[in-house]
Each structure stands twice: as structure tokens, then as C-alpha cells.
Write a structure and sequence with these properties.
Layout: E1 2-5, E2 11-15, E3 18-22, E4 43-45, H1 51-54, E5 64-67, H2 69-79, E6 84-86, E7 92-95, E8 98-104, E9 110-111, E10 117-118, E11 123-128, E12 142-145, H3 154-163, E13 167-171, H4 180-190, E14 194-198, H5 211-220, E15 225-226, E16 233-236
Parallel strand pairs: 3-4, 4-5, 5-6, 12-13, 13-14, 14-15
Antiparallel strand pairs: 1-2, 1-16, 2-3, 7-8, 8-11, 9-10, 11-12
Helix pairs in contact: 3-4, 4-5
Domain Metallo-beta-lactamase: 7-199
Organism: Haloplanus litoreus
GO molecular function, one term: hydrolase activity
Length: 244
């Protein structure tokens, strides 16, 4: 699984022959790319309807756009996307070579400048190379994109023990989402091996010293490695994942 962070909450995920783009928003200081510089993904996953997560979805209408039914319908109506499908919290869908599970995020979810439309519940996604089951599979690997969220006990009680992510992209910018301290608790509750900070330094309210994330994770006693990626930088998990 190859993970590329394009700044803010935008990730490009490649598993075998399937590529996904999560929350396309190129007007951020951590990327030098524009929508035309990115190969068209097979799927675009949208966590919620705020502009800093859906601003550039119109450039990828040749992909299959995935989100809540309300958000997928808005993309079809607003941007003319012909291939969309809505899913909802708790559901798992097969997207090419990967399985995508939608889980709740604690946030708001309006669409438009004045948030005149509701996009349903905000969400995060667990992207895995095998279908989530309760049968042990050491070769399986799952990446959790938490979306915009505050700390929530579902990370400890549901996502960690039952969906078992190995790596997590967590918002750390504070103000609109978790900050470093709560993100560190999330990493501990999720019991992940790898943490990728996101959603920081895009706007003045979320400018932080991102190295604080490393210190906070260490303070929790969590056995997670924090990866502070540069914009447009990739990190690859090679099979067999158990050796990572």
C-alpha cells in the first residue's frame, strides 16, 4: 500500500491496481501540484462537505465518487459526475482491489459557502486490502483516514479493536479538529503502529508545531511511529506487512 500526502487532508492511496484520492483540495501550502498533475484515480472518497475537502472534486468526475448519499448526490448534481455511489456509516464496499469501510467522525457537515445544504454525517474511512472480518489475518493491512474529527471513544471501542487499522492519518491542527494531545490519545486507543499527522498549517488557526505530535504520542506510552511527511511525499508499506 502506497500512501501519498498532498497536504491538508488529501491522500492518494494505491493498492495493487486500484488508486483512491481522498478529500481533493489543492489550494493548500503543502502541495506544488494541481488537479491536472495527478493521474485520474479510480475512486474519490469524500469525508464531508466542507470546501477544504471537496473543492477540487469537480476535476475528477471521471472517477467513481464515494461519500454519504447526500454528498454523493450533491457531487452528481453540482459537478455532473455520472459515476457516484452513496454509502453510510458502518458499511463496507468493494472498490477495485480494496475494501472501504465508512465510520463516523465527530464534526459538522454542511455544503456550500453558507453551509446551506446538509451532507449527512461526517465520516472517516478504513481502507484495507482484505474484507474486514473477526478472523485473524496477519497479512491484512488497513489504513484509517479519520477525516475531520475530535477524539471519540469509538476509536477505542470499535475502530481499534474491530477494524484494526495498522496506520492512521489523524488531524492534528486543533481549533477545528483534534490537536496534538488528543490525536496522541487517539493513536493510543487505535493501537496503530504508524501515525501520519494531517490537517495542519493550512490556515492561520491551524498552524502548529507539528513536532509536538511526536512528543505527545511518546507521552501516552503508545508504541506508534509518527511520520511527518513533506507535502507530496509518499510512504509505502510492502508485503508481507507483518515484517514492518
Amino acid at each position: 500500500m502506497e500512501l501519498t500526502w498532498h497536504g491538508h487532508s488529501m491522500w492518494h492511496v494505491v493498492v495493487d491496481d486500484t488508486s483512491l484520492l481522498i478529500d481533493p483540495f489543492f489550494d493548500n501550502p503543502h502541495t506544488s501540484l494541481g488537479p491536472a498533475d495527478v493521474p485520474t484515480p479510480d475512486y474519490v472518497l469524500l469525508t464531508h462537505g466542507h470546501a477544504d475537502h471537496v473543492a477540487d472534486v469537480g476535476a475528477f468526475t471521471d472517477a467513481t465518487v464515494v461519500g454519504t448519499p447526500e454528498l454523493a448526490g450533491w457531487v452528481a448534481d453540482e459537478h455532473g459526475a455520472e459515476d457516484t455511489f452513496g454509502m453510510n456509516l458502518g458499511g463496507t464496499v468493494e472498490c477495485g482491489d480494496v475494501y472501504v469501510t465508512m465510520h463516523r467522525a465527530d464534526h459538522s457537515n454542511g455544503i456550500g459557502t453558507d453551509y446551506e445544504y446538509s451532507a449527512g454525517m461526517p465520516a472517516g474511512y478504513i481502507v484495507s486490502d482484505t474484507k474486514p472480518t473477526q478472523e485473524a489475518d496477519e497479512d491484512a493491512f488497513a489504513f484509517y483516514h479519520a477525516g475531520d474529527t475530535g477524539l471519540m471513544t469509538e476509536m477505542r471501542d470499535v475502530i481499534g479493536p474491530f477494524l484494526e487499522p495498522d496506520a492512521a492519518a489523524l488531524p492534528v491542527g486543533d481549533h477545528f479538529t483534534m490537536g496534538p494531545a488528543q490525536a496522541a490519545i487517539a493513536a493510543d486507543w487505535l493501537d496503530v503502529d504508524h501515525v501520519f499527522p494531517m490537517h495542519y498549517d493550512t490556515f492561520p488557526p491551524i498552524e502548529i508545531d507539528v513536532s509536538q505530535v511526536e512528543r505527545e504520542v511518546a507521552a501516552t506510552g503508545a508504541d506508534a511511529e509518527v511520520h511527518l511527511l513533506d507535502g507530496d511525499e509518499s510512504y509505502t508499506f510492502e508485503r508481507p506487512y507483518a515484517s514492518e
